[in-house]
Write a structure and sequence with these properties.
Chain B: It catalyses: carbamoyl phosphate + L-aspartate = N-carbamoyl-L-aspartate + phosphate + H(+). The complex is a heterodimer of chains A (167) and B (320). By secondary structure, chain A is of the alpha/beta class. Chain A has 4 helices and 7 strands; from the N terminus they run H-E-H-E-H-E-H-E-E-E-E. By secondary structure, chain B is α/β, with parallel strands linked by helices. The longest helix of chain B has 19 residues. Chain B starts with 23 loop residues before the first helix and ends with a helix. Classes of the chains: A alpha/beta (167), B alpha/beta (320). Chains A and B meet through helix 3 of A and helix 1 of B.
Chain lengths: 167, 320
């Protein structure tokens, strides 16, 4: 399958977001690909509020079956969530469960004015009523469950999308 | 013990009974898991949903307000329901055995027991009983048993040392005080040697050292000034007055003179040495106020890290 160029998708995403971003909007990236993407968006949109990051390991709904991820990173929300517009940023939108977990976590920091979701790619396969307001690319056919699509960043900081056959 | 009841067949943590028997990568995994939990205390809502719907029973057969409270806070920050049973004042007085108490609580759908007991091995006994009666989803955390072990204290001390000193393999660490009666000391020494600390020193009067202490892999010093020379970490122990039987010590004043940590003695350690104490402190007995409140003391950070470490242990146990 031909994957689009990550840099072109990021440009499209910036173009979609720019008209509707408020001056006090804050971005929150979901580890790991979402944080990389949020860093780029934060720079390109020249947002005033510092960027946040979230690791949803503690909010997942499959703890009983999968256990705790051993390398969870600390979440970092360096701004006051209360009353602020927030955009959650992730590289790929799939079942929606990660977004659900990120929403739950975000609300433990306060009550945001509104929350939107920005993703590079929507791969289909939703299991929850969640959609991205900003989305650079939708796959024509949903990816099957044994395939994993993710953003990668090389040593020079260049982005690419990678499709992996899961075991 | 032939098998290690703390780990399941896949090497996951099933019970936390002692640091002895935990491989170093498991200790490191617990410390790594604790790290992101330290941030939860800074949130508006200090709660994570990891133990939502689980019931944690604090079974304290021996009083310890501090330890019980930190376990309670840890479990509540993970959204568990916490039930505190002060067993020393309840059913055991009516003649119920330890295992009958456990069976009754399992019948109330307990998911985890946090056990403090004056007898060494009581948490082991409970864990074995749960295995024997095939209740693999009920977990035991040792919160201190007799003179044997206090693993979460040992782990939070390791977390504190790693936070300030990063690399265990370059450290000289002194454990000072009543090592004979101290389950904390035993857990600390096992953890330090497992994590590769090249020199662990035990500083104590002869009467407060177990006879086989050198088998734990420590260098023994009876002179505190000699023992503190160039150490990176000073781990003070509480003088356990309530456990003192017979004439092990002449007087607390005499003890302070020889084994109390003063600024003058601490000056013999490295200039950036840190001072730990498990609490509660006896000021003027094992530690001078000037040191306890000084810049090298990390005693209050220990308490804060202790909650994150206990959250890590409980959430690792609750898996699967």
């Amino acid at each position: 399958m031909e994957l689009p160029k990550a840099d072109e998708l990021i440009e499209q995403l910036v173009a979609q977001m720019r008209p509707s971003i408020a001056p006090d909007t804050a971005l929150v990236g979901i580890h790991t690909g979402g944080v990389w993407l949020a860093e780029r968006l934060h720079a390109e949109l020249a947002l005033a509020a510092p960027m946040g990051s979230i690791d949803v390991a503690f909010y997942r709904d499959d703890l009983d079956s999968r256990g705790l991820h051993a390398k969870a990173r600390r979440s970092d929300i360096p701004f006051d969530v209360e009353g602020r517009p927030v955009v959650i940023v992730d590289d790929v939108l799939y079942t929606g469960r990660t977004t659900r977990a990120a929403l739950n976590e975000l609300f433990d920091y306060g009550r945001p004015a509104r929350v939107d979701l920005a993703v590079l790619v929507d791969r289909g396969g939703r299991e929850l009523p969640i959609e991205a307001r900003y989305c650079a690319h939708r796959l024509a056919q949903p990816l099957s469950a044994n395939r994993n699509l993710q953003l990668e960043r090389d040593a020079d900081g260049a982005f690419s999308l990678r499709l992996i056959e899961a075991k | 013990m032939a098998n290690n009841p703390q780990l399941d067949a896949n090497g996951n943590l099933k019970h936390l009974l002692s640091i002895e028997g935990l491989p170093s990568d498991m200790i490191t995994a617990i410390l790594d898991t604790a790290e992101p939990f330290t941030e939860v205390a800074e949130r508006e809502v200090k709660k994570l949903p990891l133990l939502r719907g689980k019931s944690v029973f604090n079974l304290f057969f021996e009083n310890s307000t501090r330890t019980r409270t930190t376990f309670e806070i840890a479990a509540k920050r993970l959204s568990a329901d916490v039930i505190n049973l002060n067993v020393s004042t309840s059913s055991t007085n009516k003649g119920e055995t330890l295992l009958d108490t456990v069976d009754n609580l399992v019948a109330m759908h307990a998911d985890m027991f946090v056990v403090r007991h004056a007898s060494s091995g009581a948490p082991h006994l409970i864990a074995q009983h749960l295995e024997a009666t095939r209740r693999p989803n009920v977990h035991v955390v040792n919160a201190g048993d007799g003179r044997h072990a206090h693993p979460t204290q040992g782990l939070l001390d390791m977390y504190t040392i790693r936070h300030y000193k990063r690399d265990f393999t370059r450290l000289t660490v002194a454990v000072v005080g009543d090592i004979l009666h101290s389950r904390v000391a035993r857990s600390q020494i096992h953890a330090l040697t497992t994590l590769g600390v090249p020199e662990v020193r035990a500083i104590a009067p002869k009467t407060l050292l177990p006879s086989d202490v050198e088998r734990l892999g420590v260098r023994v010093f009876h002179d505190m000034r000699e023992g503190l020379k160039d150490v990176d970490v000073v781990m003070m122990l509480r003088l356990q007055n309530e456990r003192m039987t017979g004439s092990l010590l002449p007087s607390p004043q005499e003890y302070f003179k020889f084994f109390g940590l003063t600024e003058a003695k601490l000056a013999l350690a490295k200039p950036d040495a840190i001072v730990l104490h498990p609490g509660p402190m006896n000021r003027g007995v094992e530690i001078d106020s000037a040191v306890a409140d000084g810049v090298q003391a990390v005693i209050l950070p220990q308490v804060t890290f202790g909650i994150a470490v206990r959250m890590a242990v409980m959430s690792m146990l609750a898996r699967g």
